[in-house]
Amino acid sequence: MIALTRVSRTFPARTETVAALHEIDLTVAEGEFVAVIGRSGCGKSTLLRLIAGLLEPTSGTITVDGGPVRGPRRDVALMQQQPALLPWRTALGNVLLPVEIARLPRAEGADRARELLDAVGLAGFHHRHPYELSGGMQQRVALCRALIQQPRVLLMDEPFSALDALTREDMAAQLQALHLARPATTVFVTHSIQEAVLLADRVVVLSPRPGRVREVLAVDIPRPRSLGRSAALPAVAECVAHLHDVLAKAGDDGRLS
């Protein structure tokens, strides 16, 4: 579903050019859930924006569903770290925003929006405004907004980073349930190694800037997984320890020491 071939991206700076990513080779199968981890500044968010068509690669090629990425696509949704809800719209109204922008049938979209809100535990909060919702509730609304058009590709940029531990665990469980019910191809950026292992089919480790694919680890652990109950499983602990070692051994130049 997603293929990156020798993708590099640089950004101009005052005195020099900054290399964010260098010759990334990565494929993601249809319906697969891939987590991306790495140190701050290694290009994880840049990678998502390239796949989303919000940035162009300096070199290399990116395809989604066999076609080259030349800009944003309706079948690709990007969920940011912050919910960025419109304060004058209700939860339902915020979820319906992509439907209105795409000029799709509102009635059908409203039914889908209500189903999504109910699925993430927001039954009874459809007509509440963002200021009436907790941070975790706002992030659930943002997740529903990303899913409303049933995207084939879902890109998530540390969506749970600002949440408390229990809310984060609840959101991870709801994301798993939604993914199992309607498996969109998902690329999930996180700083949490444990979260990556418990959510993903594979974990991609990026080296420090410029980001390179340092390792890809398959996670062969039965689903559903829980941040609380599954964390103690030997297989989870082994994966977490291995990924921690890979990150710790990567030098500033991206080479293993």
TrEMBL record:
Give yes or no: UniProt keyword ATP-binding. Answer: yes
The record lists the lineage as:
Bacteria, Bacillati, Actinomycetota, Actinomycetes, Micromonosporales
Q: Does the record carry Nucleotide-binding as a key word?
A: yes
Q: Which UniProt keywords apply?
A: ATP-binding, Nucleotide-binding, Transport
Q: Which Pfam families match?
A: ABC_tran
| Name this polypeptide is given | ABC transporter ATP-binding protein
Checking CDD domains in the record gives:
ABC_NrtD_SsuB_transporters (cd03293)
- ABC transporter domain location is 2-233
Which GO molecular function, any one, fits this protein according to its record?
ATP binding
InterPro entries listed in its UniProt record: AAA+_ATPase, ABC_transporter-like_ATP-bd, ABC_transporter-like_CS, ABC_transporter_ATP-bind, P-loop_NTPase
Write down the SMART domains for this protein, in alphabetical order.
AAA
